[in-house]
Amino acid sequence: xxxxxxxxxxxxxxxxxxxxxxxxxxxxxxxxxxxxxxxxxxxxxxxxxxxxxxxxxxxxxxxxxxxxxxxxxxxxxxxxxxxxxxxxxxxxxxxxxxxxxx
Amino acid sequence: xxxxxxxxxxxxxxxxxxxxxxxxxxxxxxxxxxxxxxxxxxxxxxxxxxxxxxxxxxxxxxxxxxxxxxxxxxxxxxxxxxxxxxxxxxxxxxxxxxxxxxxxxxxxxxxxxxxxxxxxxxxxxxxxxxxxxxxxxxxxxxxxxxxxxxxxxxxxxxxxxxxxxxxxxxxxxxxxxxxxxxxxxxxxxxxxxxxxxxxxxxxxxxxxxxxxxxxxxxxxxxxxxxxxxxxxxxxxxxxxxxxxxxxxxxxxxxxxxxxxxxxxxxxxxxxxxxxxxxxxxxxxxxxxxxxxxxxxxxxxxxxxxxxxxxxxxxxxxxxxxxxxxxxxxxxxxxxxxxxxxxxxxxxxxxxxxxxxxxxxxxxxxxxxxxxxxxxxxxxxxxxxxxxxxxxxxxxxxxxxxxxxxxxxxxxxxxxxxxxxxx
Lengths: 102, 422
Fold this sequence. Notes:
The structure holds two protein chains of two kinds.
Chain A: H1 2-46, H2 52-56, H3 61-64, E1 67-72, E2 76-81, E3 86-93, E4 97-100
Antiparallel strand pairs in A: 1-2, 2-3, 3-4
Chain B: H1 36-39, H2 83-94, E1 103-111, E2 114-120, E3 130-131, H3 136-149, H4 175-180, H5 199-204, H6 212-217, H7 233-248, H8 254-270, E4 279-280, E5 294-296, H9 298-309, E6 313-314, E7 317-318, H10 324-328, E8 345-346, E9 369-373, E10 377-382, E11 387-394, H11 399-414
Antiparallel strand pairs in B: 1-2, 1-11, 3-5, 4-5, 6-7, 8-9, 9-10, 10-11
Helix pairs in contact in B: 3-7, 7-8
């Protein structure tokens, strides 16, 4: 009985560790992805002065479905992922382009 | 002594271990596919025949051809240019007949200082400001040259960083070594197996996105400086950080820092050569992101190309130090440094520094050098033909896409004859 408990505990630890590892990757990817999408969309809209539909063609559709864009017309772009747990905002300053602020 | 004489070395032909192993786009979790563009950035594949790049004398502006400070003078391709081949290449790029070229948005071709061909995709035009990605490094190279000419920096002296103590080995690395990408820093971009592993993605969009220079400065050394070439965008961020502080001095805020830097960039480089559309971008600390972010029209990227093709002289005024363009197109002394000069790629028939290396076959004279950026941005300079080819667009950063672009660039260049006098 004790041995079963030990094996079960070890398995649980492994599963938790594996899940944590996978989540870590997802977190890192979500952070990079939101930063990338926010910055590039901001520059596309306000520096290149392309339309939002045109800018969205720079992202593949498989990617876009995992992100949510919020465009503050004329000033900023916020992109979130994973149900809003992760987000990035890029702002436009006239004469200096866009940069990520959070 | 020219800039180049101090570091000239023969192109090494022997193969050495590469600093970054190339892998193609690997498996990724759904929803982050585009991020793997970082993981497989700037690839090329193909064959090579073992001849080194040549350094042809840079051509002067032809008599009677005006400088494009205001507008580009226009003309027809040289009489012995293959116009059918040129038209065919343009049709191929814009007509959808070459899927591997992805989306070509702008092509501008300058021969003999004149605009001889130009085409844009629907929705884009001469006024469209498009992203440089890593072609920004060529802008940064020009800016350091200007600072050198102004006596603000000495590229053979240590560049330093306020985050490093003087005893830190990185403090001793010279500007030149950073520009040649032989700094020895531990940095992975080309061949990164995933976006997570890519320092470029981490620095620009991940943990480093609010302070790119701090991210870059934290990277340790893994090679003695000058011993190994490794593509390093972080190094160019550190160059920009140092240059910003040289130019902007002690600024009270990031906004003030970028304002001073931006004004100097426009006054020293963009205005003199008519790059009015140029929009450099800065991080939240006010540091110019000179590894990756300059937006400009295709015509303005061609102006930067012309500045280098004219050896740094513009309409009688020296903008860059004498020999600075040669510095850009000469390999470093590093054993695998044969594919890169300083801020510009060079074009040896066989390149040991880059996995799946591919050569742009511009014709019998192997003298081309070029600025290159993610997703298929390129400014190709061919001195022997007095030719500039700008291509802006978008494709996935797969080796086969880059090979297709290199082939297309070669096809365009071969349509033009060697310039008279060469």
